[in-house]
Amino acid sequence: MIVVTPSASSKVRVVTASGGIMSPGPPAAFSAPNGTTGTLDGAVKYHLVTLGCAKNTVDSMRLEAALRGGRHTSVAEPEQADLLLVNTCGFIDAAKDESIEVVRELDAGRQAGQQLYVIGCLTQIAEETVRQAVPGVDATFGAEQWDAIAASVGAASATFDIPDTALPVLGQPSAYLKISDGCDRPCTFCIIPTIKGKMHSGAARTLIAEARMYAAAGAKELVLVAQDSTAYGEDEGDRDGLARLLEELSEAVPEVPWIRLMYAYPGRVTPRLAEAMAGLPNVVPYMDMPLQHGSDAMLQRMKRPRLSKSHESIEVIRRAIPDVVLRSTFIVGFPGETDQEFEELLDFVDEHQLDHVGAFTYSPQVGTPAEQMPDQVPEDVKEARYGELMELAQSISHASNREMVGREVDILVESREPTQSASGEPVVVGRTYRDAPEVDGLAFLKGTYAMGQMVRARVDGALPYDLLCTPVADAAEAAFGTAADASPRP
Ligand code: SF4
Asked: Which tens digits make up the pLDDT trace of 123-164?
């Protein structure tokens, strides 16, 4: 049974009888804007309404980050906007009705030139219903399609950029630590090296001071980001710079239980790095390594490392940390991608059973070599391939989550306030070490806990991307005051 409970922070929350909040399913193909998007050229003012569960709120935050990357700005009032966005909920009739009602209201109040996009769970499962109810909708997108939405209004240049380290993270449970910026790689689809210039590493002592500041402000997780994190130190001639930095950070902030590495580059995951990660108690056994494709020919056209480097890097990290959680991202529909090459990508993902997979449909970026390449892939083919890849990725993610059922894990609480289960029990939202903020799944935990608490819990259920958890009896607050206590190993 599912119930809907009103909440102050979102109009509708959908909670299962078991206390878990339902997660949207796999991203769906979307209907492109209906040809009127020409009015959305340049900087766009958007008004975003978010309905539904906490996961939808996270999706909206991700979408807003992508839109801001395109220099678009949020406005509080619909009448000030060029673009009206409704992130919908669609799991039960009451939630569908409310979503459609909000879309209708915005449509009725539209001014000349304003665009209306409907996105999220409802359009994923019942796009036609939305279009019949409100024929004036300009575009629909399924769940987790933020990059496609951003691309449709010219914000695609943010796709390969990294999250900003910013002061507002102080007081939050997670903080991004940007260890370097810029990029020396020649990827033919990416404008970042042109925008940001050559890679330059942050000084270790500055990064350590920054990490200490976040730790003192209460951060329980440091997420190391860079365009290419494994290049850290190379501009200073240090091929083992990242391993050394991890060691120094681990020692400098033992009170931070989770240090997480994002954006490793295939071929640069050295045994030295893998062994350092394996041996450091507060570096989580997790690695994000964007691999972009599973076909050697495609990788060559992208000017990425050969496929053998991808295989090699996965082997190196799994040899050092057999239960490491691996995340990767891939591009589908890059110019010239054939059916056979796409099949090779599916085979690659299937072979390596990657725990988390993100994907982008290729979107030409002005000023990149790939923009001028022949054999651009039609949008409908890109979308079909995207759907097929994400269906496979979802089944692998679900299997990986099912293996967690019955195990105990620490959950880092991220909710500012609890929501309610069907039986009226409070539920908070957080993550285990297996999920990176913003891009991976969530853990739904019964109980009332403050944001930033680390709670020991048992996994009771597995959704495709998320976990349903119950606190371990009489041990709700995990002891994590020291690195040894807080070992993330399951
Ligand atoms: S590694 Fe490639 S995709 Fe990533 S920022 Fe550098 S050029 Fe862009």
From this structure: 877 888 899 999 999 999 887 677 678 777 765 544 566 665
Secondary structure class of 397 (helix, strand, coil): helix
Residues 122 and 96: beta-carbon distance below 8 Å? yes
Q: Is 192 in the pocket of ligand 1 (CB under 6 A)?
A: yes
Report the Cα 38 to chain-centroid distance in Å: 29
Cα separation, 262 vs 162, whole angstroms: 10
Residue ranges of the chain that CATH labels 3.40.50.12160: 2-155
User: Listing from the earlier edge strand, what are the strands of the sheet with 83-88?
Assistant: 73-74, 45-50, 83-88, 115-120, 139-141
pLDDT of residue 364: 84
Tokens representing residue 42 in the block:
């340049």
- 438 C-beta neighbours (distance < 10 Å), count: 15
CA distance 480 to 255: 8
361, β-bridge pairs: 332
Instruction: Please name which of 416, 308, 395 lies closest in space to residue 9, comparing C-alpha atoms.
Output: 416
Domain 408-471 classification at class level: mainly beta
Give CATH 3.80.30.20 domain extents, the chain: 159-402
Which CATH number applies to 159-402? 3.80.30.20
Closest CA to 282 of 454, 408, 428: 454
| Ligand 1 atom at shortest distance from the alpha carbon of 228 | 1
Residues 407, 367 contacting (CB under 8 angstroms)? no
Query: Tell me, what's the pLDDT at 19?
Result: 25
User: Is the CB of residue 131 less than 8 Å from the CB of residue 139?
Assistant: no
Look at phi and psi of residue 23 and say left if phi exceeds 0, alpha if psi is from -120 to 50, else beta.
Answer: beta
pLDDT at 267: 95
pLDDT tens sequence across 377-416? 999 999 999 999 999 999 999 999 999 999 999 999 998 7
What's the CA-to-centroid distance between 182 and ligand 1, angstroms?
9
Residue range(s) of every CATH 2.40.50.140 domain in the chain: 408-471
Under-50 pLDDT residues of the chain:
1-39, 157-158, 166-168, 474-490
Encoded tokens for 302: 């992208």
Question: CA 147 to CA 277: how far, in whole Å?
Answer: 31
Q: Name the nearest CA neighbour of 441 among 418, 419, 459.
A: 459
Q: What is the DSSP string of 309-320?
A: HHHHHHHHHHHH
What phi and psi values does residue 236 have, to the nearest 5 degrees? -105, 10
Q: Which runs of consecutive H residues, i.e. helices, occur in 321-378?
A: 339-352
Ligand 1 centroid vs 203 CA: distance in angstroms?
A: 21
pLDDT at 485: 33
Indicate if ligand 1 lies below 6 Å from the C-beta of 82.
no
Superfamily of domain 2-155: Methylthiotransferase, N-terminal domain (3.40.50.12160)
**What residue's CA is closest to ligand 1, atom 5?**
227
